[in-house]
Amino acid sequence: MAVAAIVVASASPATAAPPTFTHPGVMVSKAQLDVVRTRVNAGTQPQKRAYDAMMGSRYASLSYTPHPRAVVECGPVSNPNLGCTDEREDAIAAYTHALAWYVTRDVRYATKSIQIMDAWSATVRDHTNDNAHLQTAWSASSWPRAAEIIKHVYGNWPNSGRFGTMLRNVYYNEIQGSDPRTGNWELSIAEAIVGIGVFLDDKAIYDRGISLYRARVPAFIYLTSDGALPKTVPSNNLNTREKIIGFWHNQSTFVNGLTQETCRDFVHTGYGLSSISHVAETSRIQGVDLYPEVGTRLKEALGFQTTYELTGPPSWLCGGAVKRGLGPITEVGYNAMHNRLGNPMPNTETWTTQRRPLGTNNLFVSWETLTHGDNPA
């Protein structure tokens, strides 16, 4: 197929950043946090069970000890794993303690969150080896969620400036050039950059993340309105039909909601869908609603994947051999597209509600039944 016949995802508008950033404003707003606190304290579901599950996890322990490293080295599939798991889980723990403080107002949780973030901001200098970009993105997706709550609601954090310098010099500098080798990598990178931009009140960084996101989302989730073949981004150099099909893990039949990684496995598909929903939620909080732009793709992809989590796959999909395991990633998109915007999503609803409370994947997704499960804010 000629190069001209390949559809390329369109470029985004130059500016997406708000005139003034809203804080806390990375994935969860103050209004949403207030709903969480009210519902937990009133024993209202699904928040109460989700909160109890979070507080029963090791991430919420007041004896949690951070394990910072100056250089985090992560090879393919985290081999070697020199600080990779520690960094990701410490970032989740910082966020967990920030949420626990918000609900309880027990200063011990805020103090623990600060201790974890200060340990890393005083130590980490670099990420290396093959998975450096993905590791940086996953960790930098969780750090700003914690930091936003502590800095802008708790408030007593003397080293918040040093933490911001860490996000800029260690994390953003590592991933600002992105990494297009597969869709979930670039979407995770976009999510991390957007969160860093919010915390730093840096419009240029925020716009960089949104630009990556707007180009990658339509190249990650297919709609029949895209034409015979999925959209692409120029950095992947997919200039023939054969290259596109290969990049889509040899899937040659394209239907609404199929993703670039569906036929790799649902785990990696879930990573991408999670970042898509997280960025859309952050942008909505910041006053630029991206759901009209990406919501149909997100809704269709959640519906497609949850359908085949619940039922056997057809023979035309991935050769009839779907590798399930979507992960705890549906709450944010389901709440936005079904509860807030009123779209029927029966399979996503069934799959999500049957598995509540959705907890953490120990990478960069954590406690989204608590923060977004049927949250009207």
From TrEMBL:
The keyword Lyase applies. One of its GO terms (cellular component) is periplasmic space. Residues 1-16 form the signal peptide. It comes from the Bacteria. Transmembrane segments: none annotated. It holds the Pfam family Alginate_lyase. Keywords: Lyase, Signal. InterPro entries: Alginate_lyase_dom, Chondroitin_lyas. GO terms for molecular function: lyase activity. Residues 90-314 form the Alginate lyase domain. The keyword Manganese does not apply. This is Alginate lyase domain-containing protein. It comes from Lentzea aerocolonigenes.
